[in-house]
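Chain X:
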Amino acid sequence: MSQPTTVRVRPAAPADVAEIARIWHEGWADGHAGHVPEQLYRHRTAASYPPRVQQRLPTTWVLEVDGGVRGFVVVVDDEVEQVYVDAPARGTGGAGLLLAHAESEVAAAGHTRAWLAVVAGNARARAFYERSGWLDVGPVDYPAETATGTVVVPCRRYEKTLTA
């Protein structure tokens, strides 16, 4: 990926749904394969992502690089629920921009601490959060939603104290 000329984080729009869904589907498979219950993996088909993106659109921001969506973040109350960057854009600093934006959204909502859940086996994500000042505060059973209910996924809970 060449050096971008325009990089920004902006609110997601309906026109972004397909690209967010693609990035999420591909990124989820990269970080979760072999690390989550098989029951959940069976639910994470390409077709399952667009409805989930639509549902979260009001609390989603995208990383736009030279006019194209290259990543996204979803914030729900004090939780940074999703952070994904398209594979070709990984290592460019985009994830850091998205995470910083999510932290500012959580703080703007009046929370002094943000949290997120990471599958224990996703070493790349865990290392990124730790480099970004997040602390692993222990295990958490995360209720991952599916079209038919939830699947409990053993994760690590990360937290970060936010400053105003």
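Chain Y:
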Amino acid sequence: MCGRYNVIDDPDVRHLMDILGIQLYPQTRYNIAPGGKGQIVYHREGQRLLDDAYWSLLIEPRPDGSGYRPSPRYSTFNARAGKLGSSPLWQKRFRYQRAIVPASGFHEWVGERGSKQCHNIRLAEGAIAFAGLYEVWHFNGEAVTSFTIVTLPPHPRFSHIHSKSIPLMLTKDEYDLWLDPDLTTTDPLEPLLISRIRQPLVIEPIRSSESLEIIGPVERLKADGAR
């Protein structure tokens, strides 16, 4: 996953939030990049919350005091599925601190350097529920939330768009399982970490990551196993 996504307050995103039992709707935000603010759904203090959060799990105060930034020492905006159960960085959070990141689409760039084409990838129907992990940090008495998006190994039918990974996009019947605060053993989650295209995808060449204007032929990928 290259590192940009968008969320649009539209009927698809609102329907996702209704399914999740959240009374609020995410704000429309285009071109969310690592270090920027997205919004996540997670279980805390006995309820599901929609919260602003920095995209990169490890964050720190900016030296000039103007807010927070991703750790310059580590890249933690994505978490590779193969390391969730073994890495000290992810292991505990995979067990206890899972989140859903609502999105409308994400962006990948394809082609040679200097002439890369931006693509918007979205579900054929509905909004995206990225699987994520979160952390709540405390800096000088201020609680600050951050998150990462779980990525799967490359998928052969998606590798022409991104050769290294594909994000874990949960299906409707997996939302409650992923967010269940009482599920602290990860065995039931292991089947989710297999690289699959779980829902039909639409791949749209667009003018830029800040504009969703389609400028070329649209590609459609069926879900694995679909005829």
